[in-house]
Amino acid sequence: MVRVEAQGRVKVVHRGGVFWAVLGLLVADLLALEASLLLGWGSRGVLSALFPAKVPLAALGSVALALLCFPVGYFLAGLYPGFGLAPVERVRRKVQVTFLMFLALVAWEWLFFREGWSRGVLAFALGYALVLVPLFAALAREVLVRLGVWGVPVLILGAARTGALVARSLKREKALGLKPLGFLDDDPAKQGQEVEGLPVLGPLEEASAWARRGVRVAVLAMPGVGRERLAALLEGLPFPQVILVPDLLGLQSLWVSSRDLGGVLALEVKKNLLLRRNRFLKRALDYLLGVPLFLFSLPVIGLFALWIKRVSPGPAFYVQEREGLGGRMIRVWKLRTMYPDAEARLERYLEENPEAKAEWERFFKLKNDPRVLPGVGHILRRTSLDELPQLFNVLKGEMSLVGPRPFPRYHLEKFSPEFRRLRQSVLPGLTGLWQVSARSEGDLEVQEALDTYYIRNWSPWLDLYILARTFWVVLTRKGAY
């Protein structure tokens, strides 16, 4: 690890960051795999009526040993440590490798050992592992980030707008594991200055000195320098890993791959939501998860409906027209969290409180909202359980589990026509990237950026990642009010 001190001096404070990162992930993966095996064995025992043959716990010994080989697959997939991988890509690789390793485990036992491993235990263990392995890895990364041993030092070449955007993104997304030290830039006016809280450490010619000091990753964020200059920089940089940021800000960034067109570098962009099979897959996922979620939610919805009726006269449910796919208006259901005269209360409150009015115009939410019912209203809004009735909209095909949230008309009117057309190209969602990333703390600009990112970068893995993050955000109540 490299630390920047005053006047750009560098001091090596720890070189074992990669070791501790790999060790932490390895331990988390092995714990998740062995826990999945035990849970699989326990689940089979609970369902003993369907599986008459008994499986003693001692019979799991050889399977438990075989699970120790799984990290080899994770290593070959580039997941140890996996610095620089997006969270969605990490989940995709983790799930795919885990599934393939379980298949290999079953095939190996069937072809060579014939030990009679319980297929029921293995099937249950696979199901648990597909959830627990990515979950334990994410928790391990969070711990490693907090301990300061996750990530590698990164230099950003170019301190202009693109470089500043890269620095801001890397500082915000600590789980990426790319820790920006500072900038190199040839502009004399920038020398000794700070950009996004990071120092400009010198001109580009000092890149070799930084490489000798232990920096192995550089981000080249100078899209405006011209093709010849860019090619010369790439050729001469001494870093083993160079990440090139092209002049394509705002375009799709996931599921983009390089192509060699007869010696010409090209980028292939997969527009996943334009493919019919992907739309069918997304709908199938809505029903596969939406039906059991809806059934489990019915008792919860009933209890809160009774509480609402006890606190405030009037209907327990609130229905509002929102804009859906293709601009068609849909009726969105929610548990009522506000007084029946909510709009009149809001109007009076904003007239009497200029600061609250400014907050409303920026976020369309208030931290101290006079419309919210005492007790039940605050609980429902903080946990987002007031949205549960929208599972009915999902099953009707008017919404998806994941997508841009359906906003009221007054909210949509604040967005550009281009962004509104983009939103209308997909089903609105029960949850979305904005909700799990910024939630109530994100203003209109953040909402537009995150919804645009979701639509342009959609994949089943992104939906599964957002659903997993939704449960975490609801539990921690981050950004909710």
Automatic annotation (TrEMBL):
Bacterial sugar transferase domain span: 282-475
InterPro entries named among the record's database cross-references: Bact_transf (IPR003362), EPS_sugar_tfrase (IPR017475), NAD(P)-bd_dom_sf (IPR036291), Undecaprenyl-P_galact_Ptfrase (IPR017472)
Cell compartments where the protein resides: Membrane
Superkingdom to which the source organism belongs: Bacteria
A Pfam short name: CoA_binding_3
Transmembrane regions listed in the UniProt entry: 18-43, 55-77, 97-113, 120-141, 147-167, 284-308
Bilayer topology term: Multi-pass membrane protein
Keyword annotations of the record: Membrane, Transferase, Transmembrane, Transmembrane helix
Family the entry assigns: Belongs to the bacterial sugar transferase family.
Protein name per UniProt: Undecaprenyl-phosphate galactose phosphotransferase WbaP
Source organism of this protein record: Thermus composti
